[in-house]
Model the fold of this input.
Amino acid sequence: MLLLALDTATPAVTAALHDGRTVLAESSSVDARRHGELLLPAVDRVLAEAGVKLDAVTQIVVGTGPGPYTGLRVGLMTAMTFGSALGTPVHGLCTLDGLAYASGLEGDFVVATDARRKEVYWARYDGSRTRVTEPAVDRPAEIAEQVAGLPAVGAGALLYPDTFPDARAPEHVSAGALAALAAEKLAAGEELTEPRPLYLRRPDAQVPKNYKVVTPK
Amino acid sequence: MADEPLVLGIETSCDETGVGIVRGTTLLADAVASSVDEHARFGGVVPEVASRAHLEAMVPTIERALKDAGVSARDLDGISVTAGPGLAGALLVGVSAAKAYAYALGKPLYGVNHLASHICVDQLEHGPLPEPTMALLVSGGHSSLLLSADITSDVRPLGATIDDAAGEAFDKIARVLNLGFPGGPVIDRYAKEGDPNAIAFPRGLTGPRDPAYDFSFSGLKTAVARWIEAKRNAGEDVPVRDVSASFQEAVVDVLTRKAVRACKDEGVEHLMIGGGVAANSRLRALAQERCDKAGIQLRVPRPKLCTDNGAMVAALGAEMVARGRSASDWDLSADSSLPVTEPHVPGHAHTHSHDHVHETAKDNLYG
Ligand SMILES: [Zn+2]
Done:
């Protein structure tokens, strides 16, 4: 197995190669405004570091978010196009699951990332491999009761200490963790999801400045 | 000719997911998936709706184009993509796909300019572009007069709209007349049965002291809306056909008058008209009439090539390959305000003097 993992659902632009046992190479940089520019060079770096070409990859795994849409789509579009060009299977994995896995936490905890607009993307976990709620987007104050007393990982937790007093690292997802989790699941015969974005919000129907109709019908 | 470059082009600057394949100046495939129906109920293109639709449609559209063209992706000589201008988030989906495709297949990548592509597409219809060519680009997003001496390296803006694009004016008047979205085709249809001289609507920026090649449609739009409102307030029926014809006449009169004047002033013998509004039947007819009178050769591609599509991007990409222009780098960015003076975005190794331009030109990509 040679697995390429990508994630652009958080401010981190991250790519990693995994051979089924260990991470062979990883490249991560944090720049929430340059996912589009940074991802392909990151893929190129990890492949070069491992001394392989893209067509040697047997599985592609991409973080499906939830995350800010513009960046999120960069990873998904890249993974899906790689898959189409080379006939490589492409799987999706919830980005929050990658963060949970990287945390190594036992017991109950929360993963929360920054959803902007004063909201967080979040889910609850029972151990680092088991998500117990569907990913959701909410204002921190509105979920304070549901997450009270629980450790929390991710930038969303670090941003809102009133709601998440026990916030911990990692702040952003790493493709290495995503790859390791995916490799573990694939080896265990678990199905991964389709590479489809978890938007969680309907699109803003921001119509360009309308000409006001002067007389109704 | 089999040794002409085989190029796949990707276009996502607005609401059309376009993938075209050309060999030199020959069109092999023009696959388009449009999200226009999803925008119709909003009366205009909603950027996030467009971006979501691009992500869904991209891979199937690429695969359909390859099938239509009957070529193998392995045989491509390059991948081109609209790098700008356009909607930032929408552009980014196409740029991401093009980069991934080019990288996976080991092909050179060409980030190209959307406006230059609208001009270059005419090569697929009428053969190589004469040099120089004057171009009138009119659509919902642009209204520009451009002088192209070399479509891969030398495109000069002579004039542009100072307010609304021509296509926007059509959309807005269609909305005031309750005719739906998009407005261009429906107004064209009603106008055919109306009198273009029924109402004397104003011709913007045509005074002796006005800029010769710039356009303005905002005043016209207001004048038409007021005229309709006055009719309705008086309890009279609005003569939709005459309003459509008179409004349309005002728009195409100004467009063709200025385009022909630019050709004469610059000594250019060829005028091409592109962009979605080039599908307008009255614009085509009046342009033909005035060009014939002035001894100018008019080139207007068929309507499907005038609207946004991937073939036009492939056409410009093929020209880049044919003329040995340098490929773009893997960190190519989508630039929502890419200037028309940059027909393509070459790699850094070749553009030291331009680096600062790229760093300052990226605005609100993630706004
Ligand atoms: Zn266009």
